[in-house]
Amino acid sequence: MKEILNQLYEIEQKSIKNEITLFDRNLKRLFHEIEEQGFFIKNPIGEKFSELRTDIDATLMKDLGPKSKITKVLKPIIYKKEGTEVIIIQRGVAIVE
Hints:
single chain; alpha+beta; three-stranded antiparallel sheet; three-stranded mixed sheet; 33% strand; flat; GrpE protein
């Protein structure tokens, strides 16, 4: 399931980048169905980054500072809700500047 979610994320990002809106409705329906099964995908782009974050594997493009933020997400964070708990299925992979 993790690989399917990663592929859907990539398709969504490519359609956004290329301004292709033809698949918006289909992608929203797929993401809705996935959420119904307890999976959640998070794109942390633009969020602040610190060494304390455990949900991201980051490549630092410059020294880490108070203004460091996630500038590119190669793989999203994937969560799964099991009962009342939410667990990380996949840590995100990102570039930080």
